[in-house]
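Thread: "does anyone have the structure for this chain?"

Original post by V.I.:
We have the sequence but no experimental structure in hand. Need at least a predicted one for the grant figures.
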Amino acid sequence: MPSDRLVMKFGGTSMGDLERIRRAARIVAAEARAGKQVAVVVSAMAGKTNELVAWTDGAGPAAAHLGRGGLPLSDDEYDVVVASGEQVTAGLLALTLRNMGLNARSWMGWQIPILTDDAHGRARIEDVPGEVLGAAMDAGEIAVVPGFQGVTRGGRITTLGRGGSDTSAVAVAAALNCPCDIYTDVDGVYTTDPRIESRARKLNRVSYEEMLEMASLGAKVLQTRSVELAMAKRVPVRVLSSFVEPDEDGNLPAGAGTLICDEEEIVEKRIVSGVTMSRDEARITLLGLSDRTDAPADVFTRLAEASVNVDMIVQSQARTEGTVNLTFTTGRRDASRAAELMRTHQTAIGFEDIRVDEDVAKVSVVGVGMRSHAGVAQTMFRALADKGVKFQAISTSEIKISVLIDAAYAELAVRALHAAYGLDAL
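Reply from O.Q.:
Generated one for you, C-alpha cells below.
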C-alpha cells in the first residue's frame, strides 16, 4: 500500500459541535503536515440523524396508490433527508481546515461516486472508483467525504444503514489502496467493556476475524459490515481516540490505538482476546413441536423468508410423546415479529404453545488462539459455574464460544470470564 495516503474517519461524537470539529481538524492537519495525502470521512453530528429520521416520520408515508410493486415509494426521499446530516459536517470540516490555511474540499457521495445498489435505507456499496479522488489528493487537496451515503447507478442518493460511515471509510480506503484510521470516543479495542470491568486492557492488535466476531457479538467499536469489507479488501484499520491533541510540534501520539489486521501480523496469539456481552437478545421456545423430521426446517424457512436472523438453536425432548421443544434466539427487535409469524402459522407448523423471553443476554469469549488450544470451553463453564451462572443455550465457531444466560447475571459473567482467561494481566 502507498505509505503517503491515509483515510481518516470521525464519528458523530467527534463531530458533535464546532469545537469538536475544530479538534478533528487539528488531528487532520497534523497528518497532512506530516506528509500524508488525506481523505476524511465524517458522520453527522451526534443525534442529528435521529432528528432527521423523526422529521421523515412526521411527514408521513406516500399515498398507497403511489407504491411500486408493493414496495413503499418514499424510501428514496427518506435517504435524501437523512443523508444531509453528513453533508453538513463535511462542509463544516472543510471550512474549518481552510480557516487553518489548508487546501480542503468536500466531496459528496455522488461526486466520487460511491456506487451502491438501490436498497434505500440499507444500501450496500458496489464500487468506489478512486481515480478522481486520488488525483485530487495527489494535487495536495484534503478530501472531506460524508459517510453513510452513496448513489445508485440511476443517480438517486442512498444511505447505508446505521453505522454506515465506518463502511464508507473502509470502502474509500480500499479504493485508494491505503490504511484507514477510525477516530471514535474510545482509544482502541479493549478486552471487554471498561464500564463493566475496570481492569479491561487495550489491545495493540486484533485480527480481522476476532474483530468481526466481537462486532457481531455486542462490541460497539466498529460496525460489522466495515470489518467484513476491511477483511475482504485487506485494509489495515486502526481505532483511535478523537479526544487527543497534537503536541507542540504538531505531532500525534505514536503507536496509539488498536490495529485491526491479518492474523499473520500478530506475533503473540492470545487464546482469548476479549469478552463481549449483548443484551439485544430474545429467546423464543416452541413447546410441543411435532417430532417430524421436517418440522425445524419448516420453522426456520419461514423465519428466513421474513428476514429474521436466528443465532442459537437448542432442541430438547418434550413431555408429550412424539414432540420436542425447539428454542432459538434472535435480536430483541425481531422477537415480536418472529413470535407473531409463528403464531400465525401455528397449525401448519404443528406446535402446542410459544414462549418469548427478552430478559436474557449473550456473553461470548473470542480469540484466534482457540484453534490450537484445548480447554477453552472447560475454563468458561467452570468460571460460570463457580459464580452460580446457568446457561440456557450455546453456540460456537472456530474462534468464539457464546452462551445465553439470564440478563441479571450478564455483568457478573463478563467479569468472571475476564479474570478466568487472565485478560486483566495483559
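V.I.: this helps a lot. The first strand starts at residue 5 and ends at 10.
O.Q.: and The CA atoms of residues 112 and 132 lie 7 Å apart.
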